[in-house]
Amino acid sequence: MEEQQHISTAFDKDLLALNEMVQALGSLAIAQFETAIDALATQHVKTLDQIISNDAKLDDLEATIHEKALEVIALRSPHAKDLRQVLVALKIATILERTGDYARNIANRTKVIAQASNENIPGVNIGRMGQVAQQMLHDVMRAYDQHDVDLALAVWRRDIEVDHMHTAFYKEVLASMARDPNLVATGAHLLFIAKNIERIGDYATGIAEQVHFLVRGAVPEDSRPKADRTSKVVGV
Amino acid sequence: MDSTTKPMAASKLKAVDVSVFYGEKQALYDVSLNIDEKSVTSFIGPSGCGKSTFLRCFNRMNDVIPSCRVAGQIIMDDVDLNSPKIDPVLLRARVGMVFQKPNPFPKTIYENVAYGPRIHGLAANRQEMDFIVEDSLKKAGLWKEVSDRLNDQATGLSGGQQQRLCIARAIAVGPDVLLMDEPCSALDPIATSIIEELISDLQNRFTIMIVTHSMQQAARVSQKTAYFHLGKLIEYGDTKEIFTRPQNEQTEAYISGKIG
């Protein structure tokens, strides 16, 4: 269904501008995360530095979105779906900015691993886990753009896959660390990196909930399936 | 029931299949809704949607328009207000009305308030009348501003004060219900805020229905909102719901300022 226009064209322009800024922030966050996952394999220091310095752009854009949302609320008094659109833009912007923080953290830790030239741990699943989380982010931003609740719910349900991978990876790294004390430093960083990826998966579900709220006026009623068991692991 | 839960408001008035015709032209189509007691209900919608016509059904103000015919029932406390047994003059004492433009009589402030009670014989002597005048002006939030000049001409008051005087005049005859037809449309933002605050105060004593063109005003002052379009009631519900997640697309478009 084609969206109706406001009588005030300036109001339409404001909402469009807000939406475009959130999409731009989404593209930046996804790019940062993708580059961080790639650089985890290549350990290319220049790329890692670039990710770290790029993070300021996401912070700035989030601040601009907050400013624009404030302006729309103050000047346009949005109601109903318009109001939800502004609130959702604010919330998604915060989530995306934090996603960027996690990407930067992954880059920071990868840099330490690369510079220490420690022995690498064959992290069989971490790349795959990163890819699933990336796909979730891509899909959920498309769901936001197209107001597609079904796609948002598919992302929301898919997070369990990342949780399973995280639990498996956690056990695997812990076992390697137990076998060889030389791997402890690298292993510890990898555990944090894996946790960051798992959190990004959670964030994608947070955006999915916002898309549901935007379109339907309420977040999903069911509780989300979860399977991250790392907090229950006591030994290897 | 949980002690923090607000009890469900009782219905004070009930409209059942109300239709209004101006000659051949139908202005309102089978409107049915319940009005909660001691609460504020706002009627919103574009010009010509029938909201003022509907408001005027509650005190038979449409009777004064010769070509106007009302069908259906308006029930207040189990009595049909359209019954021939109902005296419209007595009804209008129980269901007071405040209009768009403040319309004080060209008399003193005191006389404006005392006029209604005098006609209805509500005061036995001057002392009782003084009490009614003071009490009504206090309830309308005007007493402090006029207590030392009750014998001044009402027309010398500011627009906002005149409107509060009209509210005091309506209150003076002891109504249960107050109808307000765009009561702030001729007022500046400060006078509007004062009237809105007064409405919030008055809802503890009266059942209030208000027609407004200001969406924000409906959102600020009322607990229930009814949206009308082309003489039909499109959506009626809690104001909070209407302004955050309306069920009907036409309501959504109207409150969002959209055309389709």
CATH topology of chain B: Rossmann fold
Query: How many structurally independent domains of chain B?
Result: 1
Report helical residue fraction of chain A: over 70%
CATH class of chain A: Mainly Alpha
Q: How many structural domains can be distinguished in the coordinates of chain A? A: 1
Largest sheet report of chain A: none
Integer average pLDDT of chain B: 93
What is the CATH H-level superfamily of chain A? Phosphate transport system protein phou homolog 2, domain 2
Question: Which residues of chain A form runs of ≥5 with pLDDT under 50?
Answer: none
Category by helix and strand content of chain A: mainly alpha
Instruction: Look at the structure and name the CATH superfamily of chain B.
Output: P-loop containing nucleotide triphosphate hydrolases
Helix content of chain B: 25-40%
> So, CATH architecture of chain A?
Up-down Bundle
Q: Give the CA-CA distance, first to last residue of chain A.
A: 54 Å
**What series of H and E elements makes up the topology of chain B?**
EEEHEEHEHHHHEHEHEEHHE
Tell me the Rg of chain B in angstroms. 19 Å
CATH architecture of chain B: 3-Layer(aba) Sandwich
Determine the strand fraction of chain A and express it as a percent band: under 5%
Number of strands of chain A: 1
Tally of alpha and pi helices of chain A: 6
What features would you highlight for this structure?
heterodimer, A: 236 residues, mainly alpha, Methane Monooxygenase Hydroxylase, Chain G, domain 1, 6 helices, B: 260 residues, alpha/beta, Rossmann fold, 6-stranded mixed sheet, 4-stranded antiparallel sheet, 10 helices, 27% strand, globular, disordered N terminus
Please tell me about this protein's structure.
The complex is a heterodimer of chains A (236) and B (260). Chain A has a single domain, classed as Phosphate transport system protein phou homolog 2, domain 2 (Methane Monooxygenase Hydroxylase, Chain G, domain 1). Helix content of chain A is 80%, strand content 1%. Chain A contains six helices and one strand; from the N terminus they run E-H-H-H-H-H-H. In chain A, helix 1 runs parallel beside helix 3 and helix 1 packs antiparallel against helix 4. Chain A starts with a strand and ends in a 20-residue tail after the last helix. With 260 residues, chain B is α/β, with parallel strands linked by helices. Chain B has a single domain, classed as P-loop containing nucleotide triphosphate hydrolases (Rossmann fold, 3-Layer(aba) Sandwich). Chain B contains ten helices and eleven strands. The N terminus of chain B is likely disordered. The interface between A and B is medium-sized, with 16 and 15 residues.
